[in-house]
Amino acid sequence: MVHRLVEPFLSLFRKLPLQFGGFDFTVLVALLVLNVLNQLLGQLFLQLIG
After folding, report:
1. Which domain holds residue 45?
2. Does the predicted model carry a pTM greater than 0.85?
3. Distances (CA, A) of 9 to 15, 31, 36, 39, 44
4. Residue 4 domain-assigned?
5. How far apart are CA 39 and CA 10, in angstroms?
6. Is the pLDDT of residue 10 over 90?
7. How far from chain centre, in Å, is Cα 4?
């Protein structure tokens, strides 16, 4: 079930060359992008209500 939820998002990053030395950094990059988006949206929200 989790696979069905996250695969559409991860598929966006699987198109990028994120495999180095036998390691796949797709999930790491996806989590970093989510973190940055979370911070940006949080700042935007604070500016809108503040």
Report:
1. 26-50
2. no
3. 11, 10, 15, 18, 23
4. no
5. 20
6. yes
7. 16
Is residue 40 in a domain?
yes
pLDDT for the residue numbered 33: 97
Within-domain flag for 20: no
Alpha helices by DSSP H, listed for the chain, are 2-14, 26-49
**Does the residue 38 lie in any domain?**
yes
Looking at the structure of the chain, the number of domains it has is 1
Are 34 and 26 contacting, i.e. CB atoms less than 8 angstroms apart? no
Residue with the two structure tokens 């696979």:
3
Short-list 2, 27, 1, 4, CA closest to 14? 27
Q: What is the pLDDT of residue 50?
A: 78
As a whole-number percent, the residues of the chain with pLDDT over 90 amount to 98
Q: Identity (one letter) of the amino acid at 17?
A: P
